[in-house]
């Protein structure tokens, strides 16, 4: 089966968050003697594109409303990845030093049109087109409705929702940017009076998946306005839990971390990484180290961090280290905590892939008090690195972390995203840290939990076969 993934992000080419990790891993695990998975993504101006060389395999023009843009399809000259990847280069629109900005309508529409225009020239069409998030959400609509793409009508397409909070809304004034279609069906584009690419994809895709079973259920009552649509379309919706890429996230081979380790050498390995973090960020090696890694946005509960961190740090029995960026006011509050809690608190405001690996390896606990968490990869990386997750039981966090109070439990769970519960969870973790026998036993236990992609990649294949 020939599978085409179309996405705005793909690790290691361009990563803003978990979408990149998934699209950078899933095709690797789908590629085998029966299946070939390939990726199409935009060509951005970033470190990866600056450090690699590309050649053009196709050149043409695309029409976006009244305007015409040149585009190229590029491939990598060397093959550093485990799957084929194609880059849509629309120099005037996509080639920027960022992935997302506040108005991406033309950029991502051009991307989607160029990708489909190029597919039209293929000798053998793909067996399935797999779209990810709203940036590719107009593809299922165009495949079904645009006259130009009529030859694709029988190709099954699926949409994976990694995050339903972002939907790519734009005004009906821009409807002429979409290649001509039967205007009687313009309603398929609409949700709440605007063009809503995510809603259009939910309506038109042959199948819709989310990245965990619990999130699929939760979306029916909390989907940023799409609740009724998701309930109505529930017959074609499934939750498939993300995996993690064990080729990248492996404590035995990870070249980013300061000391590699296995379950057998976990104590020495984690200690060396913790020491590096404590030396670098001026923290106390004798106290448990709590970490947060991620986007500082409401979904992650980050607006509660300043108060929650302050309360826990006041007790003087824990270190907190944060790596992330996002909301300006939250960033400023987090910076302010540095002076009063010098020696037990620090924050790196920014994005740093290497540091994130060292934190997963060196921290004792990882905080994830998310309000919304479609799957969450951080808790799975932390399990793999022997770092005990502290999570709010929601979405994928609920599906992957069991509280230590339950039989076989290995994490710390709380019900709500509020300051009190975050502080109580940290207190429980401080107590657990004191009991070294149980703490060490759990660290070894969690490293063995299998969240590799093998099973989930196969679940997607089974789904593609069922709609083919
Ligand atoms: N400042 C920083 N520096 C370095 N690395 C950083 C970083 N901030 C974040 N990261 C990394 O980005 C990734 C974040 O992944 P998540 O799945 O937790 O969240 P995200 O909300 O982006 O993804 C969405 O899509 C994914 C994939 O489907 C879902 O798991 C998730 O629930 C959903 O919200 C991890 O690899 C993390 O280490």
TrEMBL record:
Catalytic activity: [(1->4)-alpha-D-glucosyl](n) + ADP-alpha-D-glucose = [(1->4)-alpha-D-glucosyl](n+1) + ADP + H(+)
Residue ranges occupied by any Starch synthase catalytic domain in the UniProt entry: 2-231
Residues holding ADP-alpha-D-glucose: 15
Broad enzyme group: transferase
Highest taxon in the source lineage: Bacteria
Similarity comment: Belongs to the glycosyltransferase 1 family. Bacterial/plant glycogen synthase subfamily.
Keyword Transport: no
UniProtKB keywords: Glycogen biosynthesis, Glycosyltransferase, Transferase
Domain named Glycosyl transferase family: residues: 284-437
Protein name: Glycogen synthase
Listed SUPFAM superfamilies: UDP-Glycosyltransferase/glycogen phosphorylase (SSF53756)
EC number(s) per entry: 2.4.1.21
Pathway(s) this gene product operates in, as recorded in its UniProt entry: Glycan biosynthesis; glycogen biosynthesis
Known function: Synthesizes alpha-1,4-glucan chains using ADP-glucose.
UniProt xrefs under InterPro entries: Glyco_trans_1 (IPR001296), GS/SS (IPR011835), Starch_synth_cat_dom (IPR013534)
